[in-house]
Amino acid sequence: MELEGVEIEDTFAEAFPIKVARVLITAVNERWTMEAAKEATGFGTSVIMCPAEAGVDMIASPEETPDGRPGAYIIMCTFGYKALEEQLLARIGQCILTCPTTAVFNALKAEESEKEFNTGFKLKFFGDGYESEGELYGREVSRTPIMGGEFVIEKNLGAKAGVAGGNLFILAKDQMSALTAAEDAVSAVGQVEGTITPFTGGVVASGSKIGSQKYKFMHATINEKFCPTLKDKIEGSELPADVNGVFEVVINGVSEEAVKEAMRAGIKAAVKVTSVVKITAGNFGGKLGKYQLRLKDVLGL
Amino acid sequence: MELEGVEIEDTFAEAFPIKVARVLITAVNERWTMEAAKEATGFGTSVIMCPAEAGVDMIASPEETPDGRPGAYIIMCTFGYKALEEQLLARIGQCILTCPTTAVFNALKAEESEKEFNTGFKLKFFGDGYESEGELYGREVSRTPIMGGEFVIEKNLGAKAGVAGGNLFILAKDQMSALTAAEDAVSAVGQVEGTITPFTGGVVASGSKIGSQKYKFMHATINEKFCPTLKDKIEGSELPADVNGVFEVVINGVSEEAVKEAMRAGIKAAVKVTSVVKITAGNFGGKLGKYQLRLKDVLGL
Amino acid sequence: MELEGVEIEDTFAEAFPIKVARVLITAVNERWTMEAAKEATGFGTSVIMCPAEAGVDMIASPEETPDGRPGAYIIMCTFGYKALEEQLLARIGQCILTCPTTAVFNALKAEESEKEFNTGFKLKFFGDGYESEGELYGREVSRTPIMGGEFVIEKNLGAKAGVAGGNLFILAKDQMSALTAAEDAVSAVGQVEGTITPFTGGVVASGSKIGSQKYKFMHATINEKFCPTLKDKIEGSELPADVNGVFEVVINGVSEEAVKEAMRAGIKAAVKVTSVVKITAGNFGGKLGKYQLRLKDVLGL
Amino acid sequence: MELEGVEIEDTFAEAFPIKVARVLITAVNERWTMEAAKEATGFGTSVIMCPAEAGVDMIASPEETPDGRPGAYIIMCTFGYKALEEQLLARIGQCILTCPTTAVFNALKAEESEKEFNTGFKLKFFGDGYESEGELYGREVSRTPIMGGEFVIEKNLGAKAGVAGGNLFILAKDQMSALTAAEDAVSAVGQVEGTITPFTGGVVASGSKIGSQKYKFMHATINEKFCPTLKDKIEGSELPADVNGVFEVVINGVSEEAVKEAMRAGIKAAVKVTSVVKITAGNFGGKLGKYQLRLKDVLGL
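Predict the joint structure of the above. Result:
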């Protein structure tokens, strides 16, 4: 298969069920919405060693926010709801409540939420009796006086089953072309509602395989078949002779459809970049993940 | 006391001992050094509920980095060395090793380190036998082939006793002046080597007191005496009648002297902003913290 | 009149006819579209002493650009078509053609253009015979080989009559609140298609009156009635007693309706900011400008 | 010659005398210093069709600015002093005076200035009699009340003979590697005091030759010998077989030494990027420019 002259491998991304919360942060201006969104979703690339997978979904224009201020949607993911509730409480309480001028709202529709956490209710106790509860902008909120003014947060935040580990691999003639294409793919995914690219800057430089050939104590080690510097040193490299740069974009989302749409947008952006040779996806032979997102279907090829 | 017409309260910031690691990240360009630095130090405002306090110390120019590439110094802090080692491993392994084009070096001098962690040695096992060890740029490093090229990390990373909780409070006639002054203070602290402002965007909107008057289960609640909206509703407000905006800047650093220099730089920047009325600092009456950083001494007044 | 507790003066912004070109720049990523857009529209605040009034209209998503790459719409304005043609040629030729990976397309619909300039045709001669012409993405373009690859530009760029000088004044209790509100207004105008805020960062700090009381050779001097530092020194100040900060946002657009929509969006954003006291607009008593954009109508009050 | 494995051609950059002003802008925060600096130096890539060559030299820390606020140094260049005076007046008057919270100071030392323009004195008339003159921070300034507060500008701004057209060419295996290397070179030049890279984002994609083979009316056309897409179509291409991406960085500065230092910093940064094959420089055989900046000397090879 080909898309704009770039080979598309007939394979699939293997993805996993995960629990997802989607939250809207507003603030006095875009700068502070993004500061809050970034801090609250930092140290959130992979649940292997991070307490959550998290990222910024989209900018929210003032027209679509309850309080008419600039906003940003963020998504947090963990494997279970208990961990998700803990992460919501810790990340909102420590990184958003503490941040100048912010407010927090639920950003999942009631009909799509499977679960609700009373994070907003819990955080009100920080107000030591000076807080109040009530309706604001048609939402049930708690309002806590703070040094910076007042912290408003919706009492209940929704969560649902989502999808983690959607992905695409970009193979290019050299490292910088692969990186530019990956950055463009991340930007394109950034336009798809309900999805995030949780890794640093959205790009993964170190794709891994399960387990290890040499070190029994390691649960995951490098995927040497995709390492350009090992191309001529190992047998079975997956890299074409002219490929010297490989990056991956990992995508989590609120639904399988959202993740597929994000993969489509990412691939379409990546193939625009000069020297990109091939697009493929990562899987474990279908043995581990519930979802098989075939590039052929994703792209409608 | 006064500085450029702004009242400086004769009080002190109460600060605490903490363990500190300082690490240098380099990458192909400034953009990717900062992506790595931000992700690795995210969800890192306060050890109350974050796994570490962390932030970006300074940009490193290519001249001062071992590999001659753009760099950024980051600082991570926890109360004990065990937690610090865990955080270094998790945050570097998940947020920097995975990030395009990065390398990691120790950024504490040998003579100032009290402790060394073999984080770089541990991460080499990810290479599954394809990694190598040796000297590069005069440092002992491990080198792991990855999809994005090669990940270089110094084998040992130093740590030492540092200081957490240096702070300054900015009181202004209104919220936006206090916020602008706080942003300027954060920028100024950003120029002081060996210090970070771990909160979101460097600014704290929700200063707290220990315990609670009303909720026995709460360890910390709002400091109502510094809340502008409660000024006329409570007794004993610390806010002058014309103050309607208050923000705090919290500073951690590698030493008491570094934190004091950062406080000085921050205060000097803050008093430049119109409508700033008063600078003070937060303490617990000297009962809790080992360090008392007096504004008078800090400013040489 | 009031909007969210902020006084809206019953007055009008006086605006003028101007000639407008709207151009789409695409590039390999958002960063380079914005570099090109900013350089090409720089030194473009007011035709009093700048060769054009110019600014970035909106980001264009890859889906809406002819070549499927990230894009940015820019607008250039001059009083006559001759000057507009010169500015298009100079600013595109010097700031966009020279910029890495860019392409340029007409961004006015054929039916709305009153005039077409063959800027793309003219720039082809730079190719010294190595250029080609033809259809690409359904547009008539010229293609010039350059060091960075190939420069593609649509042969004809449209222009039309537009509106300059739409505006709003933000009066706040202090300078920083007025500035934050002005920044938010500029962000909101940034979402309105077909409009720009040509001044530096979109904000004007130095509103002026026509002529001078003291210096006969000056065509425009300060509007002392809106200067906070003169409030108590002159007679007839327009500033309420509690106002200490005033900023203006000037808006140009492709049509009267677009400018009005931008004013509406800007005002709605500005009144959200604490300490904003009043919104008004600038006019010359209706003597000079063809358009009178009444705040009452703009806001539907 | 080689530097870190990259071929350095033994040639020279041919540079020209130009007149240079260096000005310091300060503002309430870094964001607004940069807004002012960018707008004032926009539409300033090449005096062929721009009214000036201009750019941001360096960030100024609060410690080094007269008013203790964040600052940015900018440089403007024209071929003669008359044009330079006009550009200073227009660009400062229209893009900086109008910009929130800015002040302007001379940034050339008295002993190095050959010429002084009374731009600050001239701009005072905008104050319509409400302005004042006097000493502030040890500088002779005029102070004009404006809506946003007060505009302070030093009365006299210095200018001197400088150097334009220092340059380096980066040849890489592909377009994105050449572009990344060029961006890194621009960042490195950004650290060298007294120099700017006036083109869009600092990078030139369209190197030119003098005159034309085919179009007699053209003064400059593409340098086809450096166009990758023409490599196999023309005779005498300067590009090695494996080069598919070429970008140039043009440098202006206050002195020949500053430009040479900037070239050195830029080349050292560029050779760090993977797939960069060769560095060269542009000249006209030494026939046109007064300065011959040899790469060998610049790099001390």
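Chain D is about 25% helix and 35% strand.
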